[in-house]
Write a structure and sequence with these properties.
The protein has 73 residues and is mainly alpha-helical. It has one domain. It contains two helices and no strands. The radius of gyration is 28 Å and the shape is rod-shaped. The protein starts with a helix and ends with a helix. Keywords: Membrane, Transmembrane, Transmembrane helix.
Protein backbone atom coordinates (compact mmCIF):
# COMPACT_ATOMS: atom_id res chain seq x y z
CA UNK A 1 0.00 0.00 0.00
CA UNK A 2 1.19 3.44 -0.84
CA UNK A 3 1.08 6.32 1.59
CA UNK A 4 -1.58 8.01 -0.52
CA UNK A 5 -3.84 4.97 -0.20
CA UNK A 6 -3.34 4.82 3.56
CA UNK A 7 -4.26 8.47 3.98
CA UNK A 8 -7.27 8.06 1.67
CA UNK A 9 -8.86 5.62 4.13
CA UNK A 10 -8.21 7.80 7.19
CA UNK A 11 -10.77 10.26 8.61
CA UNK A 12 -10.27 13.96 7.89
CA UNK A 13 -9.21 14.79 11.45
CA UNK A 14 -6.29 12.36 11.24
CA UNK A 15 -4.97 14.05 8.09
CA UNK A 16 -5.53 17.64 9.18
CA UNK A 17 -5.16 17.52 12.99
CA UNK A 18 -3.34 14.44 14.28
CA UNK A 19 -0.56 14.20 11.68
CA UNK A 20 0.44 17.92 11.90
CA UNK A 21 0.43 17.71 15.71
CA UNK A 22 2.71 14.66 15.65
CA UNK A 23 5.05 16.42 13.22
CA UNK A 24 5.13 19.52 15.45
CA UNK A 25 5.86 17.44 18.56
CA UNK A 26 8.64 15.47 16.86
CA UNK A 27 10.24 18.28 14.85
CA UNK A 28 9.08 21.30 16.89
CA UNK A 29 12.46 22.21 18.37
CA UNK A 30 14.18 21.87 15.00
CA UNK A 31 11.53 24.03 13.32
CA UNK A 32 11.87 26.63 16.09
CA UNK A 33 15.67 26.63 15.69
CA UNK A 34 15.43 27.17 11.93
CA UNK A 35 12.85 29.95 12.31
CA UNK A 36 14.93 31.61 15.04
CA UNK A 37 18.05 31.40 12.88
CA UNK A 38 16.22 32.96 9.91
CA UNK A 39 14.81 35.79 12.03
CA UNK A 40 18.26 36.46 13.51
CA UNK A 41 19.79 36.47 10.05
CA UNK A 42 17.15 38.89 8.77
CA UNK A 43 17.77 41.17 11.75
CA UNK A 44 21.52 41.16 11.10
CA UNK A 45 20.99 41.94 7.42
CA UNK A 46 18.73 44.88 8.34
CA UNK A 47 21.35 46.16 10.81
CA UNK A 48 24.06 45.97 8.12
CA UNK A 49 21.85 47.80 5.61
CA UNK A 50 21.06 50.52 8.17
CA UNK A 51 24.72 50.99 9.14
CA UNK A 52 25.89 51.13 5.51
CA UNK A 53 23.08 53.56 4.67
CA UNK A 54 24.02 55.77 7.62
CA UNK A 55 27.68 55.65 6.60
CA UNK A 56 26.84 56.67 3.03
CA UNK A 57 24.63 59.48 4.32
CA UNK A 58 27.35 60.74 6.67
CA UNK A 59 30.05 60.61 3.99
CA UNK A 60 27.90 62.46 1.47
CA UNK A 61 26.92 65.09 4.01
CA UNK A 62 30.52 65.55 5.17
CA UNK A 63 31.95 65.73 1.65
CA UNK A 64 29.28 68.17 0.46
CA UNK A 65 29.82 70.39 3.54
CA UNK A 66 33.59 70.34 3.15
CA UNK A 67 33.46 71.00 -0.61
CA UNK A 68 31.16 74.00 -0.16
CA UNK A 69 33.40 75.43 2.58
CA UNK A 70 36.47 75.09 0.34
CA UNK A 71 35.02 77.65 -2.00
CA UNK A 72 35.09 80.21 0.81
CA UNK A 73 38.85 80.04 1.08
Amino acid sequence: MAVKEVFATMPWWVKWVAVPLVVLVVFGSMIASVVGFLIGLLFKVLIVVAVIGGLIYAVRRFTSASSSSRGDW
